Amino acid sequence: MNRNEYLARIHYPGTPSVTFNSLAELQHCHMRAVPFENLAIHYQQPILLNEDRLFRKIVGNRRGGFCYELNGLFAQLLQEIGFTVTLISAEVCQSDGTFGPAFDHLALLVELDDVFLVDVGFGDSFIRPLRLQQRGSQMQGTTAYLIRQEGDTYVLHHKKLAEPGADWKPHYRFTRQARQLADFSPMCHYHQTSPESHFTHKRVCSRATVEGRVTFSDQRLVVTQGASRTETILESEAEFSQALQAHFSIRI
């Protein structure tokens, strides 16, 4: 891995060190520069969890990816810098309140003075690390995050404070068992090929911005800036391609 090229890709200022401030800035920069996207699945571009291929795609070709790609490569960057990183398997909460299978999501634990949950591959989620053992809520913008421990299992919850009467909703659950990137290959294949995977149903591309987020969901372009939200319907494939290049510098 060329660390300097990766840091330039995410517009990281200066030289990172093995500190919380650097870790937080690395995650924040990554989520603003590198989109969460599944476009490869819809344009017949196979996704293989090979670190050289991931680096070429995300850094060299300035693309994004989904959790296995983004967190898999980000873990390598953090290790190159000197962080102690553990890859973990997470089960994502479904719309009916049940949890998906093991290896449904790849997230990271990073050890400093505390253990931190780090994730650059879950789309619209926390943009700075969360303390694993903190039992109270952890605020980021207008969203509160809460990690509840149930035996050996941790459950990440979130709550939108701008929504009146909002309650805690689970994102995913996980344990601290260490995994290898190759362990996620079967589920990576499933999510890019199975008609039962939500990733095969529609195209998604999303990244954080200074004031909110910009997201493509099939033919809808959604831009949020603080409390403002605009939605535009893209009427043709040509409009989609033009908007994709304008907002993400991606050309398929």
TrEMBL record:
Top-level lineage group: Bacteria
Residues annotated as transmembrane: none
One Pfam short name: Acetyltransf_2
Coiled coil: none
UniProt GO molecular function: acetyltransferase activity
Keyword Transferase: yes
InterPro entries the UniProt entry points to: Arylamine_N-AcTrfase (IPR001447), Papain-like_cys_pep_sf (IPR038765)
Keywords associated with the record: Transferase
Family matches, as PANTHER family: ARYLAMINE N-ACETYLTRANSFERASE 4-RELATED (PTHR11786:SF0), N-HYDROXYARYLAMINE O-ACETYLTRANSFERASE (PTHR11786)
Family of the protein in this entry: Belongs to the arylamine N-acetyltransferase family.
Protein name, UniProt field: N-hydroxyarylamine O-acetyltransferase
Organism, scientific name: Hymenobacter gelipurpurascens
